[in-house]
Design brief:
single chain; alpha/beta; Aminopeptidase; 27% strand
């Protein structure tokens, strides 16, 4: 299909895709609860003549489109569907109708762009091979990629390569960014519970086993992991995000238990193991110092996202064909955000790319995972065109 015809087809679909995106935005669902969204995706795919398989990894949907030309290669294109537990503050007419839930990461837009590619590719099957459109549930830490893989994703829908895409506020419209090798961090959660006796903070503090001291020493100790245990050439992040203990109604009572939790990020298995070991040691030593006990829980929910060299070159070529090489930054610094598309890249060679979500006239932007964020509908056509360009790169038109 000529480029002009491609762009005309995508432009014609843009209003419908925008309506779909906003409908999904208005009805956000958490990971492994995307019943409405996955049903909508499956219905649209069937409406456009795409072969559909539902229930992959519980709520995943896979659409399969076979080209008209001879070819044995197959590729996967993946989008995520879940939302977050954030109360939306955008004031948009299509704002979240589900209290406390919000599409604050743009997965509504990712789904709409891949649906757009499905519609265009189903209408114009002038490629050689098979395209598997992978609509994944539960990207935000609830194990959607792993669930689809465990349900036989790449055995049931073989792929020679798999590709993912994410919008990025702060990158201007019409630009892409990625890098070879590690691009996004492994991401995990840690939690420590300190247990002691508690006691009266005014009359008999000397008789109490004070868990507040243990947690204070532990928090300070955490800061030494990155500064003194992780090699200087490596990157790691450890942050505290939650501390709970005692009651503001009874500040004279020393709590018998304090729970503290946070996140951890890095770019190698070696550093993962180091962080886990050091958190355990610091928690137990802080507890022992004041005579209390510590219970440690560690969960690396996402692995390091590593782009494969050959497929990264394909992604760069596909994006460059659309916006020019000067608008594709191919050597960005790795990002400490997590992305569970990484698990798919462990099973199949592929690449992950960022598409610019735009910048406001004042130079700012609302970051993802914030209550004021919204996906930019103006980039839907470019996202669709990127997916189609990838198909052209991987599944040559030549017979």
């Amino acid at each position: 299909m000529p480029d002009t015809a491609l762009r005309e087809a995508i432009a014609a679909a843009h209003p419908e895709l925008t309506a779909i995106r906003r409908d999904i935005h208005a009805h956000p669902e958490l990971g492994m609860e995307e019943f409405r969204t996955s049903a909508l995706v499956a219905a649209k795919l069937r409406e456009w003549g795409v072969e559909v398989t539902e229930g992959v990894g519980k709520l995943g949907v896979v659409g399969t489109i076979r080209g008209k030309r001879p070819g044995q290669r197959s590729i996967g294109l993946r989008a995520d569907m879940d939302a977050l537990t954030i109360a939306e503050q955008t004031g948009l007419s299509y704002g979240s109708a589900n209290a406390g839930l919000m599409h604050a990461c743009g997965h509504d837009g990712h789904t709409a762009m891949l649906l757009g590619a499905a519609k265009v590719l189903a209408q114009h099957r002038d490629f050689a091979g098979t395209v598997n459109l992978i609509f994944q549930p539960a990207e935000e830490g609830r194990g959607g990629a792993a669930a689809m893989i465990a349900d036989g994703l790449f055995k049931r829908f073989p792929c020679d390569a798999v590709y993912g895409m994410h919008n990025m506020p702060g990158i201007p419209e019409g630009k892409f960014a990625l890098c070879k090798g590690p691009m996004m961090a492994s991401a995990g959660r840690w939690a420590v519970t300190f247990r002691g006796t508690g006691g009266h903070g005014g009359a008999t503090p000397h008789l109490a086993t004070d868990v507040t001291i243990a947690q204070a020493q532990f928090v300070l100790g955490l800061q030494t992991i990155v500064s003194r245990s992780v090699p200087p050439a490596e990157t790691a992040v450890i942050s505290v995000g939650s501390v709970h203990g005692g009651s503001s109604e009874a500040p004279n009572v020393m709590p018998a238990e304090i729970e503290i939790a946070g996140t951890m990020r890095c770019f190698s298995k070696k550093v993962q193991d180091l962080i886990a070991t050091r958190i355990e040691v610091l928690a137990q030593s802080a507890a022992a110092a004041v005579g209390c006990a510590a219970e440690v829980a560690l969960d690396w929910r996402m692995t390091v996202l590593v782009n494969h060299d050959a497929q990264t070159d394909v992604a760069i070529a596909a994006a460059s064909d659309l916006v020019g090489a000067g608008n594709v930054k191919s050597n960005i610094r790795p990002i400490t955000g997590g992305e569970d598309f990484a698990f798919m890249l462990e099973q199949c060679p592929g690449a992950f790319i960022l598409i610019g979500n735009g910048v406001r006239p004042d130079g700012g932007s609302h970051a993802i995972h914030t209550p004021l964020y919204d996906f930019n509908d103006a980039i839907i056509p470019l996202g669709v065109e990127y997916w189609v360009s990838l198909v052209r790169q991987e599944l040559s038109l030549a017979a």
